[in-house]
Write a structure and sequence with these properties.
The chain is of the alpha+beta class. The protein is built from 14 helices and 14 strands. Strands 5, 6, 7, 8, 9, 10, 11 and 14 form an eight-stranded antiparallel sheet that branches. A four-stranded antiparallel sheet has the order 1-4-2-3, with helices on both faces. It has a two-stranded antiparallel ribbon with strand order 12-13. Strand 6 and strand 7 form a beta hairpin. Helix 1 crosses helix 7, helix 7 crosses helix 10 and helix 7 runs parallel beside helix 12. The chain starts with 6 loop residues before the first helix and ends in a 10-residue tail after the last helix.
Length: 433
């Protein structure tokens, strides 16, 4: 999972879906993978600039294995990549920078939502009803040559902004440089904004992103834990970083496989002496996520009322994504009351969104279906490479062989395909391959 949600792998997976469903996957900024796509990136930017001389784009460069804002910087032209970064030592993704984000108190912010991937087969996705909003610490201005490298203005990473003199540690869930997402929704609702639509769009973004990743995840999963074999089941808590643009459209920034679960921050009481101070915002959100994840995946309680209540609150299938919010959010209170009576535990924060809304997104699962075929014909469990025997079985079962394509020809075709694949560099392969 960690490898799959690294910036390059995530970009590749979403790109495949953008090729197939461009309108459905327009929530992810266009990305180029470096260094292999640097010539393509340079050529495309220069071509657009020649046609639109007034175009003044900004791009953000993110190291593939970076975290907490490490190594991220903004550029205005592809030539600046070579001046500012060493691509040979560190692969990266460069994306179009979102220059018109929604602002609160004149500050840019992003949303960290916690998503529990409980199972791949069948696919089960849960979303926490609350998340974090992390604020920049300098009033936002659109990028220009003067502020381009002001990370406190452009990057929302907590680990960066905590070093700003303007950073404010939160004393409540609705104040400071880190707040709950719910507190932001209240403010937006007070301005007349349809927060049901905002939530619905975010839920749709999460489901579509997991669907984009699910196919390749299944291949790696079966390599480690073959089907039909006794062994552990796996789950993952993911951190989705989402930005709201000025028109309230959610944009996916990245997905974190190991989101921080700290609920305190360090405070220096004297030189070199620190104490840990609890964070009310982190505690409000993260404790609930961990608590309910453990309740959800506890093997000894898989048939208890907790799991049943998460999955049984069925309503008729909706036809509009905006209606997802009505069920996914309004039933929290009803579930809370039932769970409190049953287990005498705090109210639950996780809500199942898949397979609950599977029918609405089933048409997007094309790559998953292809993956299932691939896994079926692997022949040897625990591998990710289709061998010659599996390839022959695939040809036979799909009835692709005939008098003009003998099995001997199939073997030659397999050798030719694998040879071509091995000799083709990433920069020469089609997107998604």
């Amino acid at each position: 999972m960690t490898e799959m949600v690294r910036k390059i792998m995530l970009s590749r997976a979403v790109r495949v879906m953008q090729e197939l469903f461009p309108e459905e996957y327009n929530f992810y900024p266009r990305a180029w993978i470096l260094p292999e796509e640097l010539p393509l990136f340079t050529a495309q930017v220069h071509m657009v600039k020649e046609k639109a001389t007034s175009w003044r784009p900004t791009f953000i460069v993110k190291p593939d294995g970076g975290s907490q804002g490490d190594g991220i910087y903004l550029i205005r032209d592809p030539s600046e990549i070579q001046m500012l970064g060493s691509l040979q030592s560190r692969a990266a993704v460069v994306q179009e920078y979102i220059s018109k984000p929604l602002l609160i108190d004149k500050l840019k912010f992003d949303i960290r939502l916690y998503v529990v991937l409980k199972s791949l087969e069948p696919l089960e996705i849960y979303i926490a009803k609350d998340g974090l909003t992390r604020f920049c610490t300098e009033p936002y201005q659109e990028p220009n040559h003067k502020n381009l490298h002001n990370m406190f203005m452009h990057l929302t990473n907590y680990s960066l902004n905590i070093h700003s003199a303007n950073f404010v540690h939160s004393e409540s869930v609705s104040t400071g440089s880190k707040r709950t997402f719910t507190s932001i929704l209240y403010r937006l609702a007070a301005k007349g904004i349809d927060i049901k639509k905002v939530w619905s769009d975010i839920i749709s973004l999460v489901i579509k992103t997991v669907i984009a990743l699910a196919g390749e995840l299944k291949v790696y999963y079966q390599a480690e834990i073959p089907q039909g074999k006794p062994g552990p089941s796996c789950f993952q808590i993911l951190g989705f970083d989402i930005l709201l643009v000025k028109n309230l459209k959610p944009v996916l920034l990245e997905v974190n496989a190991n989101p921080s679960m700290r609920i305190e921050h360090e405070h220096e009481i004297s030189p070199g002496v620190f104490e840990y101070v609890p964070s009310p915002v982190d505690e409000e959100v993260k404790v609930a996520v961990i608590r309910d994840t453990l309740r959800l995946i506890d093997p000894s309680k898989r048939k208890n009322n907790f799991t049943q209540s998460l999955q049984s609150d069925h309503v008729p299938e909706t036809t509009k994504e905006e209606e997802i919010f009505d069920d996914s959010h309004s039933n929290f209170q009803e579930q809370d009351a039932g769970m409190h009576r049953e287990n005498s535990l705090p109210s639950l924060c996780l809500k199942q969104v898949f397979p609950k809304y599977a029918k609405q997104f089933s048409y997007l699962r094309v790559v998953e279906r292809i993956t299932n075929l691939f896994i079926r014909f692997l022949g040897i469990r625990g591998t990710t490479k289709l061998g010659s025997t599996g390839f022959r079985t695939f040809i036979r079962c799909c009835k692709l062989s005939n008098s003009s394509l003998s099995m001997a020809s199939v073997d030659i075709l397999y050798i030719d395909i694998t040879r071509r694949w091995s000799s083709t560099g990433y920069d020469q392969r089609e997107p998604g391959e």
